[in-house]
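Quick one:
INPUT:
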C-alpha cells in the first residue's frame, strides 16, 4: 500500500491511500499513518479513492486513528471510497463513527461541519 500526505490550510492534511488495505497494506503504512493521523490535534481527510480492498485490519487502523484524533480534539473524515469499499465500511458501521463523504471535495468543504 502507498500513502501520500498533502498539507492543507492550517493544521489540516489530506492522506491519500492506494492499494489493498489488508494485513500487508496496513503493516506497510502503520508507522507513517499513525504518526500523521494521531500525534497532534488536526483535521485529517483520508482519501480512499485508490483503495481497492479493505479488510478488518484496515477498518481497525481507521478506528484507532479516529479515536486518537478525537481524544486530542481533532477529527478524521473519510472520502471517496469505491463502491465495494463503501459497502464494507457501511456494513461494518464505520460511517456511524467516522464521517464518510462521496468525494474529497465534499469532505474538505463539509468535513468540519459534521
Amino acid at each position: 500500500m502507498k500513502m501520500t500526505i498533502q498539507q492543507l490550510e492550517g493544521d489540516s492534511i489530506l492522506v491519500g491511500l492506494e492499494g489493498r488495505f489488508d494485513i500487508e497494506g496496513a503493516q506497510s503504512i502503520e508507522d507513517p499513518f499513525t504518526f500523521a493521523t494521531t500525534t497532534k490535534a488536526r483535521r485529517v481527510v483520508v482519501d480512499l479513492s485508490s483503495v481497492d480492498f479493505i479488510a478488518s485490519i484496515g477498518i481497525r487502523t481507521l478506528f484507532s486513528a479516529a479515536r486518537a484524533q478525537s481524544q486530542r480534539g481533532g477529527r478524521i473524515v473519510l472520502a471517496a471510497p469505491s463502491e465495494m469499499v463503501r459497502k464494507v465500511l457501511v456494513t461494518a458501521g464505520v460511517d456511524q463513527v467516522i464521517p464518510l463523504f462521496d468525494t474529497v471535495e465534499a469532505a474538505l468543504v463539509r468535513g468540519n461541519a459534521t
